[in-house]
Amino acid sequence: MSVSEGTAAEQARFQAMIDAEQRVEPRDWMPEKYRRSLVRQISQHAHSEVVGMLPEGNWVTRAPSLRRKVALLAKIQDEGGHGLYLYSAAETLGVSRADLVDQLLDGSAKYSSIFNYPTLTWADIGVIGWLVDGAAIVNQVALCRCSYGPYARAMELICKEESFHQRQGYELVMALAQGTPEQIRMAQDAVNRWWWPTLMMFGPSDKTSPNSAQSMAWKIKRRSNDDLRQHFIDMTVPQANYLGLTMPDPDLTFNEETGQYDFGEPDWDELRRVVSGNGPCNRERMAAKRKAHAEGAWVREAATAHAEKQRRRREAA
Ligand code: FAQ
Predict the structure, then answer these.
(1) Residue 201 CA to ligand 1 centre (angstroms)
(2) Please, are residues 109 and 95 in contact by the beta-carbon 8 Å criterion?
(3) What's the DSSP call for residue 5?
(4) Which of 37, 81, 90, 212 could be bridged to 42 by S-S, CB 3.0 to 4.6 A?
(5) Helix, strand, or coil (residue 163)
(6) Contact status, residue 41 vs residue 220, Cβ threshold 8 Å
(7) If you take atom 9 of ligand 1, which residue's CA is the nearest one?
(8) pLDDT per residue over 10-62, tens digit each?
(9) Cβ distance 55 to 117 under 8 Å?
(10) Which residue's CA is the closest to the ligand 1 atom numbered 50?
């Protein structure tokens, strides 16, 4: 990997690759700002996957049946795996996973706002699968065409697993929506609490998103925040209609002319508050991550010692 300011020829070759839809690989020369923007986005994405295990982990011991418990455990394990792929993709850009994790733990790195909301009832677990994984897929399908090879390839595998997560969430919510009046009420309450935070996952509006224009020009991002949000809404509202559930937005209406749903304005102040560390569960999430990291220190030490012993053995042979 070469990340200097670059010669005119290197810059031209990089731009030609982007224009020709060729993937940039770790050994190719790339502008330093392109590299840094990728490290920023991929590491935030990795942190989101691992912090995202916490709200769901909260319900493992309370899943209502063995079948639901197994599905939830498998999903949470998948999210941990996604974090590992993504940390590895970031490492191809010359940063270490240990440094990225330190940035998460010292509070200097961001992770998705959505994981700072509490999971109050079992219905929240279904709604996370249906809405949160649904939103993640819409975003990540576009990222499968990201110009940086290792990130795009990680996205392809992750999208396949997220599709399964979304299906299990939808099936769980359907069971509740077809259940007793109390179960229906619980499902609707979860939708009411998660709908707006899910829409905020796509980031600020295009008018105020500082990174979008450059990321789109470099083909890191293929679709804008607002474009993806609209696509998610158009896809999801008919699913809610089928379930007999409603979204908590009085302005949500189908527009016959555009063929899309019109919707109300998300509370951008709330997004800013949550992203800056003041959401309902930010402190709890970070405390849990710091505790797990401290308690796992001996595992990292043992694995490093084992790897070192293996290396010496190979050298001696
Ligand atoms: N939360 O200029 P933009 C999942 C930040 S994975 C927190 O628009 P950009 C799987 C943004 O980073 C979910 N921060 O930024 C799962 C930037 O800060 P910076 C995660 C946010 O990068 C499911 C600043 O605001 N997915 O759910 C948020 O062009 C269930 C300005 O924003 C990804 O990370 C937010 N919602 O677009 C796991 C996908 N929105 O860096 C467990 C990859 C914005 O300048 C259970 N990432 N910010 O300091 C992306 O597509 C993009 O990075 C966006 C933001 C769309 C998130």
Answers:
(1) 6
(2) no
(3) S
(4) 90
(5) helix
(6) yes
(7) 211
(8) 999 999 999 999 999 999 999 999 999 999 999 999 999 999 999 999 999 99
(9) yes
(10) 41
